[in-house]
Design brief:
- The structure is a single chain.
- Helix content is about 50%, strand content about 10%.
- By secondary structure, the chain is an alpha/beta fold.
- The strands form two sheets. It has a six-stranded mixed β-sheet with strand order 6-5-7-3-2-8. A two-stranded parallel ribbon has the order 1-4.
- Strand 2 and strand 3 (about 50-55) form a beta hairpin.
- Helix 1 packs across helix 5 (about 140-155), helix 1 (about 5-10) packs parallel to helix 9 and helix 11 (about 245-265) crosses helix 12 (about 290-295).
- The model is unreliable at about 20-30 (pLDDT under 50).
Length: about 300
């Protein structure tokens, strides 16, 4: 069963990569294998406005060729790029903000003591195997430890935030003088986790730990489905991944997708062409942005992107 940890880093929250730990030293990698990806793209139109919807992943290995064909054509035709969040220039300040909000109240018991005996054993083992000092997280809230654990295995496996889709799109937008906007702020995204009660945060941490043994194979499956432009397969994995944390699923996916659909509805009132790039998990399955748009009477059409 796919666990939420992989989706959070890859498909849902780009800010999560800001908490990634440096990957340990590795043997020199072989030359990357070229993957000719054809990720999914949709379009929403009225008489004077065009809005493209593109599903991203926030980390990639070298070798993926995705910024081509119909995706590149749609981007080039757009006046504006809209992301989930704009990564802050001052990442040190961002780290301080995350640290401040992620620290538990002074009278809270140590994090590991709040877990059951079995969960504590598995949590400590997971932290040690990932190369993280579990003792350093004793004063943090469970969501913070869960977030770090959700990202560290990916960097250890060679997935690089610097190759993430948003990085490439942002660089291209700046080079071409396009406006760059965002649907949310990093503080809002932090608030999604910080607003969970203790039980929900611990459930997220435990589910993340439980998913780590399968991280490599499951993430490879996610990448394959994204590269193939298969939102149905992504939806199936998404549904399975979040069964253990239904409250988090509502907060991270359904509620946000509904908000973004409202934003798109409003944006259609202003002429122009916009390229909206959000985590691919938001454009898959029953609670997708497209389905929320449909409820508003707006049809999102799949775009043929093959080269």
């Amino acid at each position: 069963m796919t666990r939420p940890s992989q989706f959070l880093a890859a498909l849902l929250l780009p800010f999560s990569l800001l908490v990634s730990s440096p990957a340990p030293a590795r043997e020199p990698a072989a030359a990357p294998v070229t993957v000719k990806a054809d990720p999914a793209l949709w379009v929403v139109k009225d008489k004077d406005t065009t809005i493209y919807l593109f599903g991203t992943v926030h980390v990639l290995k070298p070798g993926y060729e995705w910024f081509t064909g119909g995706v590149k054509k749609a981007f080039d035709a757009s006046d504006e790029l809209v992301l989930e969040v704009i990564e802050p220039e001052d990442q040190a300040a961002m780290g301080r903000e995350m640290g401040a909000i992620g620290v538990a109240p002074a009278d809270s018991p140590a994090l590991s003591t709040r877990l059951t005996e079995e969960a504590r054993r598995k949590y400590i083992a997971a932290m040690e195997q990932t190369g993280l000092p579990w003792q350093a997280f004793e004063r943090f809230k469970p969501w913070m430890a869960g977030m770090v654990l959700s990202v560290a295995p990916l960097t250890n496996l060679g997935y690089d935030p610097k190759l993430g889709v948003e990085k490439v799109l942002s660089a291209a937008a700046k080079a071409n003088g396009k406006t760059i906007g965002a649907l949310e702020t990093v503080s809002q995204q932090l608030g999604f986790f910080n607003g969970l009660d203790d039980g929900q945060q611990i459930a997220f941490l435990n589910a993340t730990v439980d998913g780590l043994p399968e991280a490599e194979s499951q993430f490879a499956s996610l990448m394959a489905n994204w590269a193939a432009g298969d939102p149905d397969a992504l939806a199936k994995e998404m549904n399975e991944s979040l069964e253990a944390t239904p409250v988090l699923a509502k907060v991270l996916i359904e509620d946000r997708n509904a908000n973004w659909a409202q934003w798109i509805d409003k944006r259609l009132e202003t002429p122009g062409t916009v390229f909206v790039a959000v985590g691919a998990g938001h454009l898959a399955g029953a609670p997708s942005v497209q389905q929320k748009l449909k409820a508003l009477g707006i049809h999102a059409k799949r775009v043929k992107t093959q080269r």
